[in-house]
Amino acid sequence: MNRTASSLGKDLVGIEGLSADQIVSILDTAEPFKEISERRIKKVPVLRGKTIVNLFLEPSTRTRISFEFAEKRLSADTVNITATGSSVVKGETLVDTARNLEAMRIDMVVIRHGSSGAARFLAERIPSNVVNAGDGSHEHPTQALLDLLTIRDHFGKIEGLKVCIIGDILHSRVARSNIFGLLKLGAEVAVCGPMTLLPTGIDALGVHVFRRVEEAIEWANVVNVLRLQLERMKAGFVPSLREYNRIYGVSTARLKKAGPDFLVLHPGPMNRGVEIDSDVADGPHSVILRQVTNGVAVRMAVLYLLAGGMPEQAEAAKQGDVG
Amino acid sequence: MSARTILFQGGRIVDPSQGLDGVLDLLVVSGKVAKVGKGLEAPENARVVSCEARLVLPGLVDVHVHLREPGAEHKETIASGARAAVAGGFTSICAMPNTDPVIDSPATVGFVAAAGREAGLARVYPVGAISVGQRGEQLTEIGELVEAGAVAITDDGSPVMDSGLMRMALEYSRAFDIPVADHPEDMGLSRGGVMNEGLVSARLGLQGKPNASEDVHIARDLLVAELTGGHIHLQHVSTRLGVDLIRRAKARGVRVTAEATPHHLLLTETSVEGYRTDAKMNPPLRTEADRAAVEEGFLDGTLDTLATDHAPHHYDEKEQAFDDAPFGIVGLETALGLLLTHFVEAGKLDLLALVERMSLNPARAFGLKAGTLADGAPGDVTVVDPELEWTVDPTAFHSKSRNTPFKGQVLRGRAVLTVVAGRVVHEL
Ligand SMILES: [Zn+2]
């Protein structure tokens, strides 16, 4: 197969290493895959005969299920390895796991790991395609891609939009991948959250920093609300959940400052009443369920492209006539 | 004993203790320096070493080495570390006490000293712990440790967080005339960090250790040393403000000595890009401004001692996700080449000053009989071929471990003959 510039290469480790063209081609490829999920029989034979291992060494039900749906709808054979059931807890290192996977001649690995750089570590050591499903506080590229797709669906573009990410930026792989992706596609990006949860040097990445969530909402076309992990409170990054909700929570009252054409995203799972109030999560600006639907389409697109598919053939792939 | 009698003939002798830098002969008789001069005659049965176009230096001294024995012999043993030392031109090394068990009793101090003697390579000087088990709670029996052979105390691997305990250590140690060495790091400020805190850590999504975690602790140590009159030896300084704090304390007359490591002199946080675990060390590699300040402090003598912080780790421990890999790199076999190439050949530092920082100053800081070729001094000599080009090849290391970020670097200058007490212990 003749690879073009839009080809993804062997792995998807992060958004930082992708060009704007590559990102757009993933989003474009996802478009025809959305429709498959609307069919009565939600399956095409694009990855038939391919073996994919979902290696989830850190718990994540949502992302794992989304990948599994994507894989099954593309007719791949899948195996799930989760932290509690794996030999990792018995002291096997990541490099041993990599060697074992290699020995089993699998085609792709989707990896979720608690350490930054783990996906890249694996990608450098095995010939299979590796998809990063979240590594430590580093990147979560498919989450950013589905966020981009959801925003593009609504506004018809990314360029020129103002997107603010609100919450724990310091520990968030979603925030990093979003920042890289949004900037590459020409959006303006801001972050807002407790100063204890903003990394040193974040402004050097080219983002604005808002101290007050009200200012952020007034400025933005889109707010991407991140989950506050409850351990952060215990570790002293925020004084209490109550205070967090009072100062940084996205509430209906605060959304009064927002313009009419305004989106609220959240990667889930939500802490209702902490970072987001229920009436916002279920309200007219929320596209949180669209994100979930788009997640499957984006992951199908990524797997399809890594397996050697071409963006322009994705439409045909739907019919199952791409070999 | 003629076996320990050597005549080093016609080499360039560089000995800062006597302000010597010239082509001369050096005679070692019965393991001790007998004479430096022109046209010396070789006694009967002496080995004559022609040192033309070679440097003849007082044996190098490294006061910061982790030998991993007892407890982690798969990484390094006292013997393998001592072999790596002499291969790198070091004739005296100080073994850090963060082993398993910790070197916190006269028995364990004696064990390290005995194992060093048995290896019969570099002189191995034990360093005792400051606190029992390095738990930071109770002072070790410092007087007994010194009697058993400890030349200094430190809890390196960890800092002494309790300022009161540090005060006691500095006060109590004065009676024994040993330095209290400290790994400066405020654990409250660096908790969870695996690299320098800054732009690179923000991008890589790795938890950072800010400069302030080191600066705060250096300031604390200097103030407590000033209060007590004790000798504080600050290990592996990596921050620009830390260097400045030490410079000012020295000017005030505080008894402080301090280390620069080759990696903090030569590398920055960008070496971590790609999650390279061979660049994971503590304190972390910092910014170019910090590196430049460490270099400036090293050149002006604020950081008076070069130390490698040789920290061997087994390859499969480094072959992990960045968060999971241990801190540290090996350094004994690369330090001299790196410094000769990047400082002496680069014209930043003259040889006399380099030898002062790699031999005389560390020997003085830790009270070792070393660092000089004066009459009667121990016959510890390093002969260097300054023109010899070589490539850093970790597979050829004598150390049991290979974790170095300098792999593949082409260096110029290498120890070709290392002599301890008149005995040849390494010959290339
Ligand atoms: Zn240390």
- Largest sheet features of chain A: 5 strands, parallel
Content-based structural category of chain B: alpha/beta
Number of strands of chain A: 9
What is the overall pLDDT average of chain B? 97
The counted number of beta strands of chain B is: 18
Structural class label of chain A: alpha/beta
User: What is the overall silhouette of chain A?
Assistant: globular
| Radius of gyration based on Cα positions of chain A | 19 Å
Radius of gyration of chain B: 20 Å
Oligomer: heterodimer
Tell me the distance between the termini of chain A.
11 Å
Description:
The complex is a heterodimer of chains A (323) and B (428). Chain A contains 13 helices and 9 strands. Chain A is an alpha/beta fold and 323 residues long. In chain A, the strands form 2 sheets. In chain A, strands 7-6-5-8-9 form a 5-stranded parallel β-sheet. In chain A, strands 2-1-3-4 form a 4-stranded parallel β-sheet. In chain A, helix 1 packs across helix 5, helix 1 packs across helix 12 and helix 2 crosses helix 12 (288-306). The N and C termini of chain A lie close together (11 Å). Helix content of chain B is 30%, strand content 22%. Chain B is built from 13 helices and 18 strands. Chain B has helices at 78-87, 106-119, 142-147, 163-173, 187-190, 199-204, 211-228, 240-252, 262-266, 288-299, 315-318, 335-344, 351-365; strands at 6-15, 20-29, 32-37, 47-50, 55-58, 60-65, 90-95, 123-126, 153-154, 180-182, 195-196, 208-209, 232-234, 256-260, 305-306, 381-391, 410-420, 423-427. In chain B, strands 1, 2, 3, 4, 5, 16, 17 and 18 form an 8-stranded mixed β-sheet that branches. Chain B has a 5-stranded parallel β-sheet with strand order 9-10-13-14-15. Chain B is globular, with a radius of gyration of 20 Å. The chains are: A alpha/beta (323), B alpha/beta (428). Chains A and B meet through helix 4 of A and helix 6 of B. Bound molecules: zinc ion. The site of zinc ion (ZN) has 5 residues of chain B, from loops. Zinc ion binds at residues 156-157, 183, 235-236 of chain B.
